[in-house]
Amino acid sequence: MGTHSMNIFKTTILALSIMGLAACSSTGDEDMAASTAATDTSGIDATTAAAQRAEAERLAREREAQQRMEAAALNTTVFYFDFDVSEFMASDRDVLAIHGRNLAANSSRRIRLEGHADERGTREYNLALGERRANSIRDYLVVNGASLSQIETVSYGEERPAATGQTEAAYRLNRRVEIK
Amino acid sequence: MRILRHIFMLGMLLSSVARAAELNIEITQGVDNPIPIAVVPFSWGGTSALSEDVGGIVSADLQQVGEFRALPPGNMLSMPDEASEVFFRDWRILAQDYLLIGKISHSPGSQMVQVQYEFFDVAREQKLVGEVLTGNITQLRDIAHEISNVVYEQVTGTRGAFSTEILYVSAQFVSPELTYYRIEKADYDGHRSQILVESQEPLMSPTWSPDGRQIAYMSFETNLPRIYIQEIATGQRRQITDYSGINSSPVWSPDGTKLAMVLSKDGSPDIYVMDLMTNQLTRLTDHPRAETEPSWTADSRSVLFTSDRTGQPQIYQVSVNGGFPERLTFDCFYCAKGRFLPDGKNLVHVRRDTREDNSYSIAIFNIETQRVITLTDTSLDESPSVAPNGSMIMFATKVNGRGILDAVSIDGRVKFRLPSAQGDVREPSWSPFLN
What we know:
Oligomer: heterodimer
Number of helices of chain B: 4
Low-confidence stretches of chain A: 1-38
Strand content of chain B: 35-45%
Distance between the termini of chain B: 10 Å
Number of helices of chain A: 6
Strand content of chain A: 5-15%
Shape of chain A: elongated
């Protein structure tokens, strides 16, 4: 009976410390949460304490991975589009959401979205296509918390290709929006 | 007189240290049965050699438009330079339909030259026209084009466009960080090119005012697309738009009072018209999809434009007072950049027939008969511009990865090409009549 209630107590503390980990963001807080868990579970056996430390380390690693992923997402600044399509690819949604939240968290940050098209078709219509692509990304950033005043959009149409040549591979690289 | 006016304008043109893209004309396709014409080398009374071969320029002009074949001077039996020396038998034997002769003279010490020419119908043994043109010795090329205009009109009944010019954009790639974009102007045949605008940011959509004295274009020089108007002779220019979003595709109304353009300030690209006296804007289209590529009807009362409101680009026409646009094209996957020939019935456009064919050609669609004629066989054709006499269409295409200018007659029988010696050239705009 005693052991059982102790187990329940331990679980609660662990849950609290997980919430603490999820809520805070600096390594200092994390250490404090870990030591709190150690203090509150004083009296339990050494194996359990080790398991708790391992869990805390696992969470720290996860959070680091998350930070790395966000940094990588923010370093991803070119988004590609299918032929004659102005909506960004579904696979870019998570990365763009991170950009949007980052803008929301940094209200003084300003970006420029440069839309581009491949060379097929007429130049002036391609200008419209490039703008529509930039707007598609702008709107998703705003949905994720960015403010319209933080974002300037400009279309270069087919005037600034990233790749030359009349190949599908070059065209794919040219249908893009760049965050600057 | 006309020739004289021309030289004063030339003298005031901007000079530039950068070299304009040199265009070298190549005739790529002519008609099956061209009209045989003999152009005798013009005689010259002066002592020093002339800078231009007037007869040679006339021969080249007439052959470029494909309907004529000039007799090589080496095959000629006689070389008359005035009517009294012409023996029609000499030309009948050589199966020539027409004969052009001339002589160039000047008073000693003078810069002015007199070019006398006479044009004959060989079968009828009749002189059709004869004139003396006077100009500065530096204007021999202008004088030669003027003679070509007269000969062409005598034979075809259509006004010649040999004294016209073209605008185009050149792009010279230096490194991934540096490309020079230029708006250049040249004779219709690519000669005498010169730079009017240069920028390290893209330049687009150069176009002529109806009097040929100004150009309008879009420049990214401020890192945003904005429209500018520039005086050709002085280089003086002004920015005329600064709206958020796309500011592009300026086109003067034929009466010169208005400028149609594309602005996306209200959310998506739409067609607007600016009154050039009052700077007042009128919005012609109001649709959440893209409306772009305006072009005027000859009466300045309607504007053609491209819209993808049904999914893919198609060509529409709307009154300059606004109202509901009429759709003109239906049977194509992609029909864009429409502009009427001077007859107001034949619609020149960029056409991709089906999603599968993946080829963009220049075509003409007759809005009365609904007949479509595809004129070109390259696959990345765009930016068609019609000569002011309606005889030929110049357009941009890619050959071996290079941007070049091509021209095709409206019946598709004649083609010539203006490849650039360096860089890409594109977006040709044929001038109005300048003489």
